[in-house]
Amino acid sequence: MEGKSPQIRTALPGPEAQKLLALDHKFVSPSYAREYPLVAKRGEGMLVEDVDGNTFLDFSAGIAVVSTGHCHPAVVQAIQRQAGTLIHMSGTDFYYPLLAAVAEKMAEIAPGNFPKRVYFGNSGTEAIEAAMKLARYHTKRERIIAFFGCFHGRTCGSLSLTASKPVQRAGFGPLLSGVAHAPFAYPYRCPCGCKAVDCERACTCADFIENVLFKTTSPPQEVAAIFVEPVQGEGGYIVPPIRFLRRLREIADRHGILLVFDEIQCGMGRTGKMWACDHFGVAPDILVAAKGIASGMPLGVTVARADIMDWAPGAHASTFGGNPLACAAALETIRLIEEQYAVNAERMGKYLMQRLAGFTQKHPMVGDVRGLGLMVGIELVKDQVAREPDGEFRNRVVRSAFEKGLLVLGCGESTVRLMPPLIVQPEHVDFAVDVLDRSLTELENGVHRAGSI
Ligand SMILES: Cc1ncc(COP(=O)(O)O)c(C=O)c1O
């Protein structure tokens, strides 16, 4: 498939896809929120083929997971080799070399020049749960601070931190007590009211923690940790000012609070450096990674300063966490990211932003184009002055791109997120930008025509 261009041969969904959708709709949990009916059959590099032989260019990467592209030959080989050697042993009760090898590698590459230890789970949410439990265990404090718009997972602990969309929380309460939320620095529509030009210099979002939370709901001596995504993912692909993360570090240090960076979506080379926080010059006490770490094998890791990871044997564990297949895929994925793909993400991220540079002038419904490396958001608005989000229009753009052979997803209220595999090349960027350009033009013309009737 690689080397071929995306091609749409049938109406979408095609006849085979329709059969699958009927089966899925009958038996699969209705809680999944599919944005369009892609029924994937196989993937190779940047391309995904559906069950009807249509091929798509993938700018969603399985939600930022297939960092090395679909079925990278070196990753496939590592998994196959491992599958023939040892599939499972459970690091909770036994030792095997790959668990220690990935722990050593993660301790080496995670930010911060201090000894570290590594805990293994199977997903992002599990890695967050581990970080929450560890923070409470180590500090003997109960409270946690998180941010509006951030997404940390859907199990009850991590969901207590998640403050991205009401549908993710509705009906599941009561969640963990002791969690308070602060505004996330969002330069395009700053919740503290500072204008974009001032945001870098005078961002006051982080100050909300000391000025409001510590004085009202969250006595600092009871706060175990501050959890934050260095670049907000699900909540809208928002890059905060450098000052924001630096202030969080200062506040945490001043009050003996642990700083936890959720790099589940923004880590593993996606922003052009191994970790998004490397752009900000701030290291956390605990770093959480998952998604892109093993190119699609399920793995979540919690990396903490060694003196913090002081829990007792039996205090926390997971049967499958750090499964040998996932570890084999992770070692290969990390090698590829270190050797080639983080650098490629930086180059291609710049090229993508360059290609999108004229979008706010050309398209009246594009309010903002922002990003870091290959984590790029296009925010759609009813008009550029009022900046009112237009989620319905965003959904139509995403759907139109799918019909033209491009896989993208939404995030936040009205943003299209572009998160291709880190192997992406200029011709892929050109295809994606051209599709989005055409989709926006067609749909904007439709809106304006409808408006003039
Ligand atoms: C930043 C962030 N944290 C946590 C999670 C939860 O990860 P998982 O879906 O693997 O549980 C996600 C998933 O989208 C995420 O983007």
Plain-language structure description:
- It is a single chain.
- The chain has 453 residues and is of the alpha/beta class.
- The protein is built from 14 helices and 15 strands.
- The protein has helices spanning 15-27, 61-64, 73-83, 97-109, 124-139, 156-161, 166-169, 196-202, 207-213, 242-254, 324-356, 359-362, 391-403, 426-452, and strands spanning 40-44, 47-50, 55-58, 116-121, 143-147, 179-182, 223-228, 258-262, 286-289, 300-305, 366-372, 375-380, 406-407, 409-411, 415-418.
- The strands form 3 sheets. A 7-stranded mixed β-sheet has the order 4-10-9-8-7-5-6, sandwiched between helices. A 4-stranded mixed β-sheet has the order 1-2-3-13.
- α10 (242-254) links the parallel β7 and β8.
- α3 packs antiparallel against α11 (324-356) and α11 packs across α14 (426-452).
In short:
This protein has 14 helices and 15 strands.
Report the strand count: 15
Low-confidence stretches: none
CATH domain class of the largest domain: Alpha Beta
* Radius of gyration (Å): 22 Å
How do the SSEs run, as a string of H and E?
A: HEEEHHHEHEHHEHHEHEEEHHEEHEEEH
| Strand composition percent | 15-25%
Number of helices: 14
Number of domains: 2
- Specify the overall morphology: globular
User: What's the rounded overall pLDDT mean?
Assistant: 95
- Based on secondary structure, the structural category is alpha/beta
CATH H-level homologous superfamily name of the largest domain: Type I PLP-dependent aspartate aminotransferase-like (Major domain)
Cα distance, first to last residue? 45 Å
